[in-house]
Each structure stands twice: as C-alpha cells, then as structure tokens.
Amino acid sequence: MFKTLFRILILVVIAVIGINIYIDFKASDFLFDSTSTVPKNTYALVLGTSKYVIGGGKNPYFEARIKAAEALVSAGKVDSIIVSGDNREANYNEPKRMRQALIELGVSENIIIEDKSGLKTDFSIRSYINNYPNKSVTIVTQRFHNQRAVYTARKKGINAVGLNAEDIGFMRDKRTHAREWLAKVKAFVL
C-alpha cells in the first residue's frame, strides 16, 4: 500500500513539473523583459495584486507592475491600459488603486480602464475577450505569473505577449511561486 501511494506521489510530482516546463516553454517566445523589445499593442492588461502586503508595507509586485505599465505608455507601446483586479469588498479595490498609482506616475487618466472582474487571472483574460474587440494584448505581471497568463490567453485565441515586471525573487516569496506552480497545472487542464 505504501509503495503504491509513493509511486502515485512520484507520478504526480513528475506531472506537475512536466506541465510547468511545458507552459513555460509555450509562453517563452512571447515574454519580454524590456519595453524596447515588446511589440506595440492597443491595450495593456495589468493583472491585479494588493497595493500592500500583510502588515502594511508596500507590495513590491504591485509597485513593479505599475512601473512596467507606465514604461509601456512612455515608450509608446500601448494606447490604453486595462487595470484588472479584485473588487469584492467596499474597502478593497485593486483596479482603483492601480489607476491611482498610474496617474501619480503621470499616466493620463483618460487611457486607464478599470476592470473590476479580475478576481483571478483567468477572469481577467475572459473579461478582456468578452469586452474588447482587439484580439491582441500586452499582459503586465511578473515573469513567473506571465508564463501562465500568456499561455492561457493564447490558448483562448488571444494574440498575447507579456511584459515582465521586476520580480522580487523566489527566495523572498516562496509561497506565491509555489502557488503559481499549481495554478499552471489548473491552466493546463482547463
């Protein structure tokens, strides 16, 4: 019995690793680390995250995504920015906070669109498909997240590329990176 369970566990681990490698490979040609190399698109889709971490400090993921989105606008690589995130509670509104942060960096409020249905990455992508006729988009998030986001969008027929915002590194945030490994399995299956 123990040997059977152990073998099943080994197969599951191999499957998770294999799926992650596959998704990373499928997305790799469409991910960019610099605004100078990313193709021009009408829209950027900035995936939401909290502005603050538990304990009240600034969230480095949020800060990096906002800076990357502003850099796209400054480089003339997008015409409009869709900020997509969680808006489930009255006092928690990721799109509104992203909009405010972009305006503080000098981005015109006229080109920022709030998408309040982005509770999950897949919801943000579905909302883009349903609400925007343009089937091309530049997704803005960290590389480890962009791999899944771009893979998912392309799987759904969107000509998506990703601009990778600065990452804080695996060692500083193991939980988020581990969760992303499992989310990639879900993206592959669904």
From TrEMBL:
Spans through the membrane: 6-23
Keywords: Membrane, Transmembrane, Transmembrane helix
Keyword Transferase annotated: no
InterPro entries: Cell_Envelope_Assoc, DUF218
Gene Ontology CC entries for this record: plasma membrane
Pfam assignment, any one: DUF218
Domain DUF218, first and last residues per copy: 43-165
Protein name: Vancomycin high temperature exclusion protein
Record carries keyword Disulfide bond: no
UniProt organism field: Paucihalobacter ruber
CDD domains xrefs: YdcF-like
